[in-house]
């Protein structure tokens, strides 16, 4: 019996996929189809996939062409599968011409003619066309534009507040109201004090919103925004890119599942001296203070891991004036744990995160907020575990893809709960209101 194997993501199964499967089937007597896992796609940077692995497997199964379906989960698996299943022919589309010649050492390699004029990429682009406007200064938006280019179905229509900066190419700069009229959705990374009114206006005009945190100052304002989004059937999502990285999400799942036991302490640090020479004229140089730049990011894992029901909070800050803090430390005491979040624009420290538990601890090296690697360490070092998940670029594309999916599916994917959003907004309200704040 001649065995044939082929692989693919098979997202949004179309005629091109069917043609490949039929041609592969005709090469032998028994066809094995490998469908990529969600994890494998994510690690390879293939983040535009619209269907879950089970949906894609079911699509292949319904064709009736596969005698056996397996899951592709890691690099190098093709060689293992060829040897394990006694494969005679490896078949793949001609768009991969030459890529898999190395497999000829193990079996015959056949490149099948690809159906022209149709692809999952094209279908995704046609089905999920989204006109996106960007709100904020160019110094914070140009990385977003660079990463959005690789996402099918997102067109950036313009900016508001970027002042025609050359880093944004030829993107037109509109007034905020004009940009709302031209967009289906907006990405907001404007000054913290301006966000609430901008988000409220966008939602009340039926626009979806992806916004950096905090979205508002004060938990009641945050609650109102969430309710406005629900009333207008709009997606309102947090724009902290850390929350959407695969490594960070897996880290949270492991901690919550008890991998390190009961968590007694969470410590996060976010500092930078990149703009230290310009701080004397921070307003003219459009430089955010330490809290606006780093506070929400540093607080995110604290509230996601320990929750928001702390019993005491203390904020210690070093300021140059009423707005600009060079350094701020936030301490939280829970009934059974503690947490510390440190941020600074005028101080330098190791940008790491440490989560301490009764069985072990999680260590995320600097810069922890660009999470692609973390370790779980135990008393017995032989049990230590290391985890790596690829993170492309700055990570903006991951949150943009999740934003796009949430819009297409008609619901917000809950990477950051309403309680966490509200508590972050409350901490900012306390910070700017001087509630429980000690200046040094």
Automatic annotation (TrEMBL):
Residues 176-239 form the Gfo/Idh/MocA-like oxidoreductase N-terminal domain. Gene3D superfamilies: Dihydrodipicolinate Reductase, domain 2, HUPs, NAD(P)-binding Rossmann-like Domain. Keywords: Nucleotidyltransferase, Transferase. The keyword Cell membrane does not apply. This is Putative glycerol-3-phosphate cytidylyltransferase. PANTHER family: FAD SYNTHASE. InterPro entries: Archaeal_FAD_synthase, Cyt_trans-like, Gfo/Idh/MocA-like_OxRdtase_N, NAD(P)-bd_dom_sf, Rossmann-like_a/b/a_fold. Residues 5-125 form the Cytidyltransferase-like domain. One of its GO terms (molecular function) is nucleotide binding. NCBIfam families: cyt_tran_rel. It comes from the Bacteria.
């Amino acid at each position: 019996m001649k065995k044939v194997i082929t692989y693919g993501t098979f997202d949004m199964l179309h005629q091109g996929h069917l043609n490949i499967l039929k041609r592969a089937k005709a090469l032998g007597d028994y066809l094995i189809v490998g469908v990529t896992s969600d994890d494998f796609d994510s690690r390879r940077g293939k983040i535009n996939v619209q269907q879950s692995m089970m949906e894609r497997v079911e699509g292949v199964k319904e064709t009736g062409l596969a005698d056996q379906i397996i899951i592709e989960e890691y690099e190098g698996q093709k060689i293992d599968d060829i040897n394990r299943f006694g494969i005679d022919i490896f078949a793949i589309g001609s768009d991969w011409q030459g890529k898999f010649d190395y497999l000829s050492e193990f079996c015959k390699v056949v490149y099948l003619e690809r159906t022209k004029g149709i692809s999952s990429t094209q279908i995704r682009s046609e089905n999920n066309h989204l006109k996106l406007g960007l709100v904020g200064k160019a110094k914070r938006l140009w990385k977003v534009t660079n990463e959005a280019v690789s996402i099918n179905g997102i067109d950036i229509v313009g900016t508001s507040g970027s002042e025609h900066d050359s880093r944004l190419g030829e993107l037109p700069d509109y007034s905020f109201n004009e940009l709302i009229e031209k967009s289906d959705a907006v990405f907001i990374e404007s000054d913290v004090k301006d966000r609430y009114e901008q988000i409220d206006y966008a939602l009340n005009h039926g626009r979806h919103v992806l916004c950096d945190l905090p979205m508002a100052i004060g938990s009641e304002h945050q609650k109102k925004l969430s309710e406005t989004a629900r009333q207008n059937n709009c997606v309102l999502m947090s724009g902290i890119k850390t929350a959407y990285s695969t490594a960070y999400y897996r880290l949270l799942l492991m901690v919550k599942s008890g991998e390190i036991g009961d968590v007694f302490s969470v410590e996060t640090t976010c500092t930078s001296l990149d703009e230290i020479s310009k701080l004397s004229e921070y307003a003219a140089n459009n430089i955010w203070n330490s809290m606006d730049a780093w506070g929400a990011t540093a607080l995110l894992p604290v509230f996601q891991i320990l929750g928001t029901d702390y019993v005491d909070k203390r904020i210690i800050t070093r300021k140059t004036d009423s707005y600009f803090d060079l350094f701020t430390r936030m301490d939280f005491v829970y009934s059974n744990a503690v947490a510390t979040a440190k941020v600074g624009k005028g101080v330098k420290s190791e940008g790491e995160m440490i989560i301490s538990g009764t069985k072990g601890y999680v260590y995320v090296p600097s810069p922890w907020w660009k999470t692609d690697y973390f370790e779980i360490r135990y008393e017995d070092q032989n049990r230590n575990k290391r985890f790596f998940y690829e993170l492309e670029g700055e990570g903006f594309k991951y949150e943009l893809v999740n934003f796009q999916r949430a819009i297409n599916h008609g619901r917000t994917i809950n990477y950051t709960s309403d309680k966490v959003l509200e508590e972050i907004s409350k901490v900012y309200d306390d910070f700017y209101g001087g509630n429980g704040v000690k200046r040094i």
